[in-house]
Amino acid sequence: MTDSIVSEHAGGVALLTVDAPGSRNALTLELSSQLAAAVAAAERDESVHAVVVTGTPPAFCAGADLSALGAADEAGLRAIYEGFLAVARCALPTIAAVGGAAVGAGLNLALAADVRLAGPHAKFVARFLELGLHPGGGMTWMTQRLAGPQQAAAMTLFGQPLNAEAAVRAGLALRVVEGEHDELVAAARELAAPAVAAPREALLATKRSLRTTASLAAHADAVDVEIEPQLASLASPEFAERLAAMRARIRARP
User: Fold this and answer.
1) Please, how many CA atoms are within 13 Å of residue 241, restricted to the half-sphere of its CB?
2) Pairing relation of β-strands 13-19 and 94-98?
3) What pLDDT digit, counting tens, does each position of 13-32 carry?
């Protein structure tokens, strides 16, 4: 079978699977390009409210394809990054369903998502220095931001891997989902359900606000960022409909 990104849009969720089991889902230039295109397609599809990224078992993603990496110049490196950076830039909420090893660029792919769910066999591994390679793709920034400087140093400088439970303790994963890969993906879909139920424009605006307020120092500045999109949502027909439905439910209570 040809390695590919398998994209399925169903139930308000775009499920994007890195399907290259022969290489443990290593990212080639072609797969990175396909992943970026699949993310863009999900953003264009107005029925999609959330994106779930996963890999064909047993791995999540073993990193960048070594042949592509060994021959890469700056343009080549940036092309390898493009798949996981598309996930990082995605306007929609994103979930990484990490069922196996996420190594190097695969770690970057997992960290690029808003939330990570870990299967019982998940492993989060930097492995750059083990190959004599400086980290790339923003790994040092993402890891420090999510897990703090000490855990980032342990992973990056000292090669310490994190299993599923350790990733949860470090803040890299939200929780561990026991069971097989299908159960992990089902848990990701369940996590996405409130986003699927939300009005899409309010959802997109909320993610934009999260990104903006993350770098602010003052509460008052966050209030200013949020007030315009909140006013827009107050004026929306979706809010009016949901408010009327809630009032009707309250009136119907005994």
Assistant:
1) 5
2) unpaired
3) 999 999 999 999 999 999 99
For residue 53 the two structure tokens come to 């990224």
- What is the mean pLDDT of the segment spanning 30-45? 98
* Residue 253: predicted pLDDT: 85
SS3 category, 147:
helix
User: Where are the strands (E) in the chain, listed by range?
Assistant: 4-10, 13-19, 50-55, 94-98, 101-103, 115-118, 123-125, 162-163, 175-176
Q: What is the CA radius of gyration of the chain?
A: 19
CB burial of 133-163 (b: ≥16 within 10 Å; e: otherwise) equals eebbbbbbebbbebbeeebbebbbeeeebbe
**Of 52, 4, 54, the residue nearest 30 (C-alpha):** 4
Q: What is the DSSP string of 197-214?
A: HS-HHHHHHHHHHHHHHT
Task: Tell me how many degrees the CA angle 133-139-141 measures, rounded to the nearest 5.
Answer: 130
∠ CA 36-39-40, rounded to 5°: 85
At 85-133, the pLDDT tens digits run 999 999 999 999 999 999 999 999 999 999 999 999 999 999 999 999 9
